[in-house]
Amino acid sequence: MTTVEIERSMAPAAATPSRRSQRRGGLAGYVFVSGYTALLLAFGVFPTGYSFYLALTNTRGQFTGLGQFTKVISDFRFGPAFGNIAVYLVMWLLLVVVLTVVTAVILRSRVRPGLSAALRFLYYLPGALAGVASVLVWLFMLSPGVSPVTGLLRALGLSTFDQVLAPGNLPVILVLIAFWTGAGGWIVVMYGALNNIPDEVMEAARVDGAGPWRTAWSIQVPMIRKWIVYMAILAFASGTQLFVEPQLLQTASLQRVSPTWSPNQLAYVLAFQNGDFNAAAALSVFLLVLGLIVATVLVTRSGLFKVGDE
Amino acid sequence: MTAITPRQRLRSGSGKAAAGRAGGAASLLVVIVILAALLVFFVLPVIWLLLAPTKTDVQLDHAFPLSFGSFSQLGRAWQHLTAFQGGAIWQWLRNSAIYSGGALLVTLATSVPAGYALAMMKFRGRKLLLTVTLVTMIMPSSALVLPIFLELNLFHLIGTAWSIILPFSFYPFGVYLVYIYFATSLPQDMLAAARIDGASEWQVFARVALPLARPVIGLVAFFSFVGNWNNFFLPYLVLPSSDQFPIQVGLNQLLSSTPSFNPVAGKGLDITSPELALAIIIAILPVLVLFLFSQRALVSGMLAGATKG
I need a labelling partner for A294 at 20 to 30 A (CA). Which of A113, B10, B71, B119 fits? Predict the structure, then answer.
């Protein structure tokens, strides 16, 4: 998980554009968007198209149909990589959805505003360590002896670093890292969404005799449902793309962790160790299409984003 | 804990006060346990990290985890770290600054006018551009890293500074933030007034819109810089030699040179756990400082995202 996660978390400010009857532009509009459009074509559209081209051809540029795709799917590392990601995603989504919503509800309705703001900031702070730094910090946290919670690790039967990095533990470790750097940002967003619930609604629940937990379950959670869905979808999309975290864990584990733990790592190995750019492109196309589908559904179906003003 | 507002506890009617008080105490306990556990989880590693470079390897293993070692040990860790590959860490930091700073300038120069035009002007293809922007914004950026590598390889751009700066500069989220900002807070009437006074489109943008956009420019700059500073995947693929690495890839190299995690390759080097911890702190320092100083703006920015929905 990266700060990109957090960045995105502020994204769904559904536009409520003012009336555009007087909007002008034409040629000037094109000039204003030209620089950005060039970057979009160069680093969004072109690489996507080129990956498709590579995935459908071989090294000599001959069209091979779906050959590269069947080659990648039948690779013995393909299934395990997507299986690993699936296990990780289930755990990560359950944890991030339940804990961020519960925490945001508590911070919103049961804690004084000053303390609530301080806690939100402290929870959010590890977001500054997203990426490589977070993995290195957690290598220390999970290394018996150095770790400040060595006692806890030993109680769990983990007395050497090797035991901690056993392949079966990897999803849990990755979830811990992702939660540490990303959850705070989501708590801030969920808190903001809860803040947006009109006071009258909360007051009505109170008058009807609903306690804080009842109010949370019957009023607050349903009213921020679309934000929860938004968070889950983004967490899912970025979870499919894991690279940095398993790659560094692999480095630190002295190759005991598979170098092709995640699909992106497999694509990396295909490109850099096997030199098979066509197969790497085919795998990238899988991941790209997955990301594109999720993003397109979210943009066009969720109602969180408005692109037109009609 | 004084965390709970009195109002919450007074809420239950006097008739069921006793039952309410018992239930209230239990739920208060749950609240405190959750908040405290999360606080420890989020903050303990940060505090540990800040203290680690002051201790020796042995102290890290045996002393109280949250104890302070000594300044002289901190100095030793500093010397060992800066001596690694003849001061490679300074080169890495300089590279990170060039890549993130360069990308920041190009991002602002392209995304602010684009977001403005998408919000305030009419042209064919506007809706398409906005939709594509939203989709690429939602799509995880790492999905495009390998394709971008393949593209750079096609054009023989591997290993140049521009092969990092330009892909970093493509920042659809920044365009969207600017778009939302202008669409929701800049009245068309203000632009119309300026146009009636004879201002050109460029003058309207530069004299009316741009001065008002300072908050959102700060926000875009912050997210762009932080994201690029912490980016690992693209430079890891694109840059072949150590003197071009940004600090994140440099950290990876330090990791594989640490006997703590790599007894074979790290043998004979002075990069042990305290040095690695110090390197992590140095690597994140710019971002951490930004986090601390833009805390209020940041949170309000993130809230703007959530509360306008």
Answer: B119
Give the burial class of A193: count Cβ atoms within 10 A of its Cβ; 0-12 exposed, 13-18 middle, 19 or more buried: buried
Boundaries of every domain in chain B: 6-74, 85-255
CB B305 within 8 A of CB A195: no
**Are A3 and B299 within 8 A, CB to CB?**
no
DSSP helix/strand/coil, B122: strand
| Structural domain that includes position A279 | 3-10+26-301
Report helix, strand and coil shares of chain A as percent, to nearest 5: 70, 0, 25
Q: Is residue A17 part of a domain?
A: no
* B8 — pLDDT class (breaks 50, 70, 90): very low
* Nearest residue in chain B measured CA to CA from A177: B42
Give the domain CATH number at A263.
1.10.3720.10
Mutate to test the interface with A, among B39, B111, B136, B146 (most CBs of A within 10 A): B146
- Type of residue found at A161: F
Domain count, chain A: 1
- Token pair of A235, please? 């967490």
**Distance between CA A131 and CA A175 in Å, rounded?**
13
Does residue A306 form part of some domain?
A: no
- Does residue A66 lie in a domain region? yes
> Looking at the complex, does the CB of residue A53 fall below 8 Å from at least one CB of chain B?
no
Three-state DSSP class for residue A25: strand
Q: Do B309 and A226 touch (CB under 8 A)?
A: yes
The CATH code belonging to domain B85-255 is 1.10.3720.10
Is the Cβ of A298 closer than 8 Å to some Cβ of chain B? Answer: yes
The answer to whether B46 contacts A272, with C-beta atoms less than 8 Å apart, is no
Per-residue pLDDT tens over the stretch B174-225: 999 899 889 888 888 888 888 888 888 899 999 889 998 888 898 899 889 9
* Nearest residue in B to A214, CA atom: B27
B111-151 pLDDT, tens digit each: 999 999 999 998 999 999 999 998 898 888 888 999 999 99
